[in-house]
Amino acid sequence: MDLSMRWLADYVDCKCDIKKFCDEMTLSGSKVECFGEEGDYLSNVVVGHVVDIVPHPDSDHMFICQIDVGEAEPVQIVTGAQNVKKGDYVPAAKHKSTVLHDGKPVKITKGKLRGVASNGMLCSLDELGLTLHDFPYAIEDGIFILGDDCDKTVGKDIREAIGFDDKVVEFEITSNRPDCLSVTGLAREAAATFNVKADIKEPQFKGVDGDINSIMSAEIHNAELCPRYMCGYVKNVKIGPSPRWMRERLRASGVRPINNFVDITNFVMLEYGQPMHAFDLRYVSGAKINIRNAKQGEKITTLDGVERELSEEMLVIADAEKPVAVAGVMGGEYSGIMDDTTAVVFESACFDGASVRTTAKKLGMRTDASARFEKGLDPENTYPALMRAFELVEELGCGEVVRTFIDCYPVKKERRGVTFDAAWINGFLGTDIPEAEQEEYLTRLGFEIKDGKAYAPYYRIDIECKSDLAEEVARLYGYNKIPDTIIRGVANAKLTRKQKFERTVTSAMLGMGVNEITTFSFISPKYFDKIRLPQDSKLRNTVVITNPLGEDTSVMRTTILPSVLEVLARNYSFRNPECYAFELGNEYIPVEGEVLPEEPERLGVGLYDTSDKIDFYTIKGMVEELLDKCGAPGYEVARPAEDTVFGEVSAFHPGRVAVITIDGREIAIFGELHPETLENYGIGCRAYAAKVLVPELMEYCIDQKTYKPLPKFPATTRDLSLICDDELPAAVIEKTIRTAAGKLLEKVTLFDIYKGQQIAEGKKSISYSLTLRSHEGTLTDDQADKVMDKVLKALAEQGAELRA
Amino acid sequence: MKEQLKAIEAKAREELSKASDLKSLDEIRVKFLGKKGEITAILKQMGKLSAEERPVIGQLANTVRADIEEALTSAQNDLKSKAAAKKLEAERIDVTLPGKLPRLGSAHPLNATLAEVEEVFLGMGFDIVEGPEVETDHYCFEALNMPKHHPARDTQDTFYINENVLLRTQTSSVQIRTMENRKPPIRIISPGRVYRSDAVDATHSPLFHQIEGLVIDKGITMADLKGTLEMLLKRLYGEETQLRFRPHHFPYTEPSAEVDLMCFNCRGKGCSMCKQEGYVELLGAGMVHPKVLEECGIDPEVYSGFAFGIGLERITMGRYNINDMRLLYENDMRFLGQF
């Protein structure tokens, strides 16, 4: 809402400068976004009087003017305009002034035009930043000749002389206060804020004799959607421009002046917050207004020339035959004021906010009027607005108002009282404001206190309960004067197991040198192709956003992997030599028969390092270390099964991918990315990724770590070098050793793998170091040999023989 | 013999002074003190001495032996420390060469800030509560006093999954779920991802994070709300932090407030950083609307409460002086590595 300070001054004098005005209004609840001054880009442009004008000797289209600018000597200015005459008053930009050119400020200095000195410039409206709408009597291509509505004091600053010096304050008005989207509303707020009186008189009009009922009629067919409909008739209408004071107030409010009747409707809307409609009765068939629901499929061509199809829930203003306006949104094609209009109907009505909102949305046309109705206006507001329109018609002398008017108001709105309890308000706010002071604040805001109740003025549609009154008191008392206190009572807060577990996971990943990332939860369905998901993969069944910003963010991710890979790709494209990234984030999995999807938490990890420092075993080591730090019990690592739960297996190198299972349940997948995946993401080096199912892992992890006594007896170490088929997985060998060695085995460490010379084709040499220890005494060689015999026997069954 | 012993000692001392390594020291020890050494040789001749001389010479021999032993030890120590010094000298390095770091990862700045906020609230007795991001219209709007067609819905452009399911625009939905499930007193914060259909630019993102707080108990006042926020923001921004509360409107609180932080740059005078306002808008808050309490089965005549919502991005950007929100979601390692 742009507020003209000149207009505000018609109603209230806050007795302070604009900065203080803005600050105080903000603190009492009307937030000021910014303020500015009209035409502040102009400088040193004054009213000039053309005392002499002669043709330029060396040009057939220029003139040399002597301009009286209120100084000792007239100023000589050369102009190319053809419309300047001796005796005219014009805007004269003096030497070292600023005017607009093509919408941008430019400096004007003296110079020579075809050899003749020109000490400035005469200005057009455009060069002042104005249009013909502001001064309809001016001409498009020529100097602006000041009319009688301007101050013609020579030398006077032009902005002041033509009323182009208003200050404008931009307010951010919250949706509960549509009354403040008006000059009178803000005048009332200002008066309450500064504790001064606002001078808002009830509009008066004289009118001429005539019976409105013999001219036209109106009927509400749906009182729920239209609680009140008022209209009045103006005859002998003279369409023309409105006076300067009205035009400049409209302009400062950001509304373009059109003609007196259109301007009056806009003026009243801005002043009273009540949208008005003016239409020509000639186009109302049968002179009968029906406020009714549209019929299914009924059509109307709106003022903007677009034909629109209506549906039954929409409210229309119709004549005897057809809709002439969409109620509260926009008038029909022929409903406007034409140049030959002789009789005008002013409509001032109240429509249901939700209905206007739905209709405007469905038709795709939000107008200034609909934006106001949407917030819910009070039916009482229609009356002063209509009276003000009549008053203005008479003030402008542009028609005769028929004294009687139509007022359909089926159910008069009752004033609602809210219990006023000063002690409760103090208890609620934590203040100690005396009752009398509270009453004074409410009275200032137009409330009436009677029998322990506060009655809000009709325009305050937002006042419904005790806490609303508390806010009114608080905002005039001053929010910042309310003390700061500490909540009483004790409270015992703690992290949940899940939150603690997340912290463990995060700190483990950070400790391993992986940076934490934050990615969007929505992705493009194309990402599924990038990770090579089969067409029938269940991961392609997503939660779809019906109104996404773009395809890239149109579905909720069912796998965290592409989000992580996007980060790898982006870093690679930034030529970052390495990227170690992890995210702890949700996946969104639709569940058949459920309203909401599941949102399981996942750990996604992605790594690349162009210095080749890392390989498959780096990501494996990270996942294993993570499991260890989280307190995971024994787990198994194996190649993914055909029916793995991890649909993303397609993204990985088929020979370099593994799955971790605990108790037969898959918990994590990790590995090197498939070359095609890398190509799809434009990553030019090997890269690795992992995904861990966090809640599933947490189920198996042990929170409580218990201390095991340190060994009292020394350990015995035995090394084993084996020969076996290359295909025999190390995990199988290790498991065999563990099972066979039993309790005495403390640790198995792989320390060498060798293929090549001296080893037969298809075989490998694999060496382990076994640490054996007893907690009962020092192991004898005999005991250790027995263990080793058992181990070798078991290994032989697996086809692993001691290397000769 | 006296002279012989004296001569031996002198000789031993001379040889010791010339010895340059531990091996030659050992040779000296054998030569003089060994079983076949010179002192032993002298002592073997003790039998020829008179009874008077024997103890005198014996004592002298022992003194000489002890002296040589002591000299030997000291020469040994000398040599050892010289060798050590030499080794240390040889191991001199350029201490200005770059250090070798064990690599540590960096927490994302949003999460680092969140962790700090959570810590403050845990200390004040607030539990941390989470809830679904894909949410029903009921929990995101209806229960928060924003029925369908409520004009305030316009300020939260919403992504819809279908007519009744959406991406939550605020974590207040979690507050409603909490109030339905817990009896007062309630003290919670609900941090999390929220979604609004704003195109990405330097200050907007379709996904961002909120931390909402809720306190419900008997006798909770607006002064408590002010005190709580004051404490949080002083912890986050320092003791000199100054706040400004001004009236605002949210459908789910009454009275409602917006809280501004005095611009650190100009201390409230107005500058380009705060768009001449002197203050920077920080968060929204208010006393929980009685309708919202009722909706959750809490009697507004008995209980009152306050709620607030903070944009995590805003405070994170303020803390680290980050001027473009896109950096937070780009995940450039050069950016993340700075935290």
- Proper CATH architecture of the largest domain in chain A: 2-Layer Sandwich
What portion of residues of chain A belong to β-strands? Answer: 25-35%
Kindly report the oligomeric state of this protein: heterodimer
Low-pLDDT sequence parts of chain A? none
Distance between the amino and carboxyl termini of chain B: 83 Å
CATH class of the largest domain in chain B: Alpha Beta
What are the low-pLDDT stretches of chain B, counting only 5+ consecutive residues below 50? none
Structurally, how many domains make up the residues of chain A?
6
Q: What letter string, H or E per element, gives the SSE order of chain B?
A: HHHHHEEHEEHEEHEEEHEHHH
Count of all domains of chain B:
2
Q: Architecture of the largest domain in chain B, according to CATH?
A: 2-Layer Sandwich
| Form type of chain A | elongated
User: Could you give the order of strands across the largest sheet of chain A?
Assistant: 27-30-31-35-34-33-32
Structure described in brief:
Chain A is α+β, with helices and mostly antiparallel strands.
Write the layout of secondary structure elements.
The complex is a heterodimer of chains A (804) and B (339).
Chain A: E1 2-4, H1 5-9, H2 18-27, E2 31-37, E3 43-55, E4 63-68, E5 75-79, E6 89-101, E7 104-108, E8 111-113, E9 116-118, E10 120-122, H3 125-128, H4 158-161, E11 167-172, H5 183-194, H6 212-215, E12 217-220, E13 228-235, H7 244-252, H8 260-272, E14 276-280, E15 288-293, E16 299-301, E17 307-309, E18 315-318, E19 323-326, E20 330-331, E21 344-350, H9 353-363, H10 368-374, H11 382-396, E22 400-401, E23 406-408, E24 417-419, H12 422-429, H13 435-444, E25 448-450, E26 453-455, H14 466-477, H15 497-511, E27 515-516, E28 522-523, H16 527-530, E29 555-556, H17 561-573, E30 578-586, E31 601-609, H18 616-629, E32 636-638, E33 652-662, E34 665-673, H19 675-680, E35 687-693, H20 694-700, E36 716-725, H21 730-741, E37 745-754, E38 763-772, H22 781-797, E39 801-802
Parallel strand pairs in A: 12-15, 27-30
Antiparallel strand pairs in A: 1-11, 2-11, 3-4, 3-6, 4-5, 6-7, 6-10, 8-9, 13-21, 13-22, 13-23, 14-21, 15-18, 16-17, 18-19, 19-20, 24-26, 25-26, 28-29, 30-31, 31-35, 32-33, 33-34, 34-35, 36-38, 36-39, 37-38
Helix pairs in contact in A: 7-8, 8-11, 9-10, 12-14, 13-14, 15-18, 21-22
Chain B: H1 2-18, H2 22-33, H3 38-44, H4 53-90, H5 109-123, E1 127-128, E2 134-136, H6 137-140, E3 160-162, E4 165-167, H7 172-181, E5 186-195, E6 207-217, H8 222-237, E7 243-250, E8 253-262, E9 279-288, H9 290-295, E10 304-311, H10 312-320, H11 326-330, H12 333-336
Parallel strand pairs in B: 1-5
Antiparallel strand pairs in B: 2-4, 3-4, 5-6, 6-10, 7-8, 8-9, 9-10
Helix pairs in contact in B: 1-2, 1-4, 2-4, 5-10
